Structure formats: structure tokens, C-alpha cells
UniProtKB/TrEMBL annotation:
One Pfam family cited in the UniProt record for this chain: Phytase-like
Residues spanning the signal sequence: 1-23
The Phytase-like domain, residue ranges: 74-366
InterPro entries xrefs: Phytase-like_dom
RNA-binding found in the keyword field: no
Highest taxon of the lineage: Bacteria
Name this protein carries in UniProt: Phytase-like domain-containing protein
Signal among keywords: yes
Keyword line: Signal
Length: 399
């Protein structure tokens, strides 16, 4: 989703890094069993990019969960996307800032690189880069004359890295696909999806939007062969069955949508998706969650969604692989009890570490969310969970 923040700075993360739904095809033995916590990391909420620009002037003074605004530096906003670099480091994408266009014009969109070390209990922040449009690819007005992109320009929620080292990001305001260089420079004009326009779309021109606010490309998947992208909308398009989400196909060679798409059906129309990643040609891991936090959180799950639709009901088959509110923790990882809960409003990152292990991160909506401790701004947490069974993933999904 949007509003996030996770503060990296020169800081370090302290690493020490379910009720099943009915299966609808997919895994031959039905839903997986109870996943186990194997790693925990926490990045303090008040982590900022060193020597950066002030931010947060438009959100009010607060305090919000004990934190007053504005901020002297840029907060490292909640992780809304992740790339595994397969060298022990991760690229993590901060989303649009503070929740909407109106209050995020002084938040600079950024990709951060982090290196967790579960043995030492720390995560080293290796730096990062801002997203910008120096080649003037964006045809509509931007917030800043220097063309550094802000949360008033785009709401970036998902990211993948392709074979040439460049990045593609999914935006919610268009929604648009955005193609960036390895250093964050926009390489092409924003690419729209025909028939889908959010209320924030700059080309709406008084027309009726076809999707809700901040309900654009929450998920973005790179196919295992590297030839296609699969952007997943967070909300239903007008005219579609409520709760059905379009999972489209975009061809990287032709730079065009193929017209092929799948349908991911939410377990409740009140739910939303948080992220998606490919397991093989047909199967994808998808985070689905409700809007609750803390004790009010009731539904935070990861499904294995299969596009082959073996039961012929017109939607992707779903198998529950992890209930994030009921994770076994027999070793007391992170100092938590025997049951670990990941009770955050927005959980927006999942990545494969091996055929049975996932890394999952929350978006802490800095400084607004307080799912871990009431009245205290959420940290950004990085957890690793081991599934009860192998995914039998395509080896390319692990590279």
C-alpha cells in the first residue's frame, strides 16, 4: 500500500532475523501447515537518511505515536518493495511518503540497500539512490524543478530488477509501470494500463476513475524466464466482480501488454494484497491482508496462487502457505513467545530465500502505524519464515 517509512540512515537493524483457509487447488496436499519463525530484524522507526533534506512539513506537527513533525532529514519510509540481490544484500523501495499526494511533496522517492547479518544481530545500511527524471520522460508536471521524484508525483509500491540491471516499479497513482536505470533515472515515459485509471491519474481530465484511490499496482512480478512482468492491482476495476483483482501480463521485448491476464480473488472484499513474487511459470506467492493492526489484526496471510485454474472457476487457485498471525516460534527468536504474530496494517514485501524459506517485511507507515505496541510508531521488521513443505520452485525463481 502507500504510506510508509522505514528508517535506515547510518543505522543498524537488530536482527535475530495459522487459522487455515480452505484450499482451492494448487498444492496436492491442500494448505501448508504452520510456518516457523527462523529470523527477526527490527529497524528503528526513527531512522533517517543522513544529511538529506527535511521532510514531513505537510503532515501536521503531531505528535504521531510520540513523534513530532517535520523531520530534519528524510525518513527511510516503509518498505513497499524488495529485490533480493543474492549476495546477502537487498534493495528495498520506500513508497510515496505519508499516504497521499497532498502531504508527500517533500518526500523523495528512494531505493535503499541493506545487508542483514543474523549472526551478529545487525543490518548494515549500504546506501541507496533517489528516483529521478533527468531525461524528461514524464510528460506531465512534476513537483520539483530538478526532477527528483517525490511522493506527490508517484506512489511506487513494487519493484523488480531485470537482467540488464535496471529496475521496473509499479505505481498506484496512474497506475503506471516505471522503468529506471541502475541508479534510479527514469528511462521511459510512464506506461499506463488501458481501461484502468486511479483518481490521482494526471490524464483523468474530469473522467470517472475506474479504480479506487491508492489501489493501483501494489504487486509487480518478474516472470521466471525474465521476459515478462505481471503487475497486480490492489483494488477491483469498475465493472469487475468486487474482490477480483487483475493480474496482467506485460511483454518486456515489445514494451506492451499482451492482453492476457489472470484473476486473483480476495478472501474478502475488505482485504487487499501487499506483494507478489513468482515461484514458477504458473504459481505466485501473494500477500493478502486486512486493514487491522495489533489486536485488531485478523487476516495476514501468504497464498500460493496458481494461474492454471484447475477447478475452472475463472480465478486463480489458492493454497495457504503461511498465516502471519500464527507463526510457530519454538526457539523464541527475537525474544517473542512460542507464537509469533506479524500484526501490521500493511505487509508489503515477500521474497524467496530458498525453496522453503521466505523473507517478509512490513511497511510501517511512519509515523502513523502502531501495530506492535499501541501508541508507539512501528519499526520496520524483517522476518524469515520456514514453510512446512517445499514449494518446488523453478530454480530461476531463486536466482
Amino acid at each position: 500500500m502507500r504510506r510508509s517509512s522505514i528508517l535506515l540512515g547510518a543505522a543498524v537493524l537488530t536482527v535475530a532475523l495459522a487459522v487455515p483457509a480452505t484450499a482451492r487447488g494448487g498444492h496436492p496436499d491442500g494448505d501448508f501447515g504452520r510456518a516457523t519463525l527462523t529470523g527477526f530484524a527490527s529497524l528503528p522507526a526513527e531512522t533517517y537518511v543522513p544529511h538529506s533534506e527535511p521532510s514531513g512539513a505537510l503532515i501536521g506537527e503531531g505528535p504521531f505515536n510520540g513523534i513530532a513533525a517535520p523531520f530534519r532529514d528524510q525518513p527511510v519510509q516503509g518498505f513497499s518493495g524488495i529485490v533480493n540481490r543474492h549476495d546477502g544484500t537487498f534493495d528495498v523501495l520506500s513508497d510515496n511518503g505519508y499516504g497521499n499526494k497532498a502531504n508527500s511533496a517533500d518526500y523523495l522517492l528512494r531505493v535503499h540497500r541493506v545487508k542483514p547479518d543474523t549472526r551478529s544481530g545487525k543490518v548494515e545500511v549500504l546506501g541507496g539512490f533517489n528516483l529521478s527524471d533527468p531525461y524528461r520522460k514524464v510528460p506531465f508536471p512534476l513537483t520539483r524543478s530538478d526532477r527528483v521524484l517525490t511522493g506527490a508525483d508517484f506512489d511506487v509500491e513494487s519493484i523488480v530488477r531485470v537482467a540488464d540491471g535496471t529496475y521496473w516499479a509499479g505505481d498506484e497513482f496512474g497506475p503506471f509501470l516505471l522503468h529506471f536505470s541502475a541508479t534510479g533515472r527514469l528511462l521511459e515515459a510512464p506506461i499506463a494500463l488501458d481501461g484502468v485509471q486511479a483518481p490521482e491519474n494526471p490524464y483523468l481530465n474530469g473522467a470517472q476513475p475506474t479504480i479506487g484511490s491508492s489501489k493501483g499496482f501494489e504487486g509487480l512480478v518478474r516472470s521466471v524466464d525474465g521476459r515478462r512482468l505481471h503487475p497486480l492491482l490492489e483494488g477491483s476495476v469498475a465493472g469487475d466482480t468486487p474482490g477480483d483483482l487483475r493480474f496482467s501480463e506485460f511483454d518486456l521485448k515489445s514494451r506492451a501488454y499482451t492482453g492476457k491476464r489472470f484473476v486473483y480473488r480476495l478472501e474478502s472484499t475488505a482485504n487487499a494484497i501487499g506483494d507478489a513474487v513468482a515461484v514458477d511459470r504458473h504459481r505466485f506467492l501473494v500477500i493478502e491482508r486486512d486493514g487491522g493492526q495489533g489486536d485488531d489484526a485478523r487476516f495476514k496471510r501468504i497464498y500460493l496462487a496458481d494461474s492454471r485454474d484447475r477447478d475452472r472457476d475463472g480465478v486463480m487457485d489458492k493454497t495457504l502457505v503461511a498465516d502471519l498471525l500464527d507463526i510457530a516460534n519454538p526457539k523464541g527468536v527475537g525474544g517473542f513467545g512460542e507464537t509469533f504474530r506479524f500484526p501490521f496494517t500493511t505487509i508489503e514485501d515477500v521474497v524467496l530465500l530458498d525453496d522453503r524459506t521466505l523473507a517478509v517485511l512490513n511497511d510501517n507507515n511512519f509515523p502513523f502505524s502502531s501495530g506492535r505496541t499501541p501508541g508507539k510508531a512501528d519499526d520496520n521488521e524483517f522476518i524469515t519464515v520456514r514453510l512446512t513443505d517445499r514449494l518446488h520452485a523453478d530454480p530461476r525463481a531463486l536466482r
